[in-house]
Design goal:
Layout: H1 2-14, E1 23-26, H2 63-66, E2 70-73, H3 91-99, H4 116-119, E3 129-133, E4 137-141, E5 144-147, E6 172-175, H5 191-207
Antiparallel strand pairs: 1-2, 3-4, 4-5, 5-6
Length: about 210
């Protein structure tokens, strides 16, 4: 992967457009070690923890399943920095439409938001609400994450992927601002927050947006 990205960068430089090209490096989901491919991911792990401090992984509603690498490079336009802005790849549609003065039909990409200022580092505020999909739909708002009760399996295939799914018969509530590893379920302590987020999630689902 490092080599492939390097080849793209080299080609941009050779073409003389490296200073005026935005590069976005991201992923479609969180990590999985053994997904049925004989690619050495397990045998060559060598102590590396691709999920970092997060719980879960690919196929999971937990953060390691939905929170992915996101790096933007645009020399002269984006200054090096780290941002906590909440963004989603679906936001590319509205954001780049705005940047390129294009119109998105009202019936398309209803859940896409223009967060170009966050992508360019002009603000550290992204979207306020995000519905995530791992094994089930969950919702994040203002740093609070709610996982509805689910009777699904607690782990994926134990003989292969063996990833914690986040499924639980009890509602789950986490404050990602100070517990990014989703280690402490606060649902019983904040029933009003659970009720608020559960209602919001159902509203978004019923509105189709």
């Amino acid at each position: 992967l490092d080599w492939a990205v390097g080849e793209i960068m080299n080609q941009l430089k050779a073409s003389g457009i490296d200073k005026n090209t935005m590069i976005i490096f991201s992923s479609d989901n969180g990590p999985v070690l053994d997904d049925g491919y004989l690619d050495g991911a397990v045998t060559q792990l060598n102590g590396h923890t691709p999920w970092g401090p997060l719980r879960g992984g690919k196929y999971s509603s937990l953060e390691a399943g939905t929170r992915v690498p996101f790096i933007i490079s645009w020399p002269g336009k984006v200054k090096p920095a780290v941002s906590d802005a909440l963004v989603c790849q679906i936001d590319f549609i509205a954001s780049f439409a705005k940047l390129l003065n294009q119109v998105v039909p009202a019936s398309d990409a209803k859940d896409s938001e223009n967060i170009m200022d966050a992508l360019l580092g002009k603000t550290k505020k992204g979207r306020s609400v995000l519905v995530q999909q791992g094994g089930q739909l969950t919702i994040v708002k203002d740093g609070w994450k709610y996982l509805p009760p689910s009777n699904g399996p607690a782990n994926t295939n134990p003989k292969l992927t063996n990833i914690e799914t986040g499924n639980s018969p009890e509602p789950q509530l986490y404050n990602l601002n100070n517990d990014i590893g989703e280690s402490k379920n606060l649902a019983s302590q904040y029933p009003a927050k659970v009720k608020e987020l559960a209602a919001l999630l159902e509203k978004i689902k019923s509105d189709g947006k």
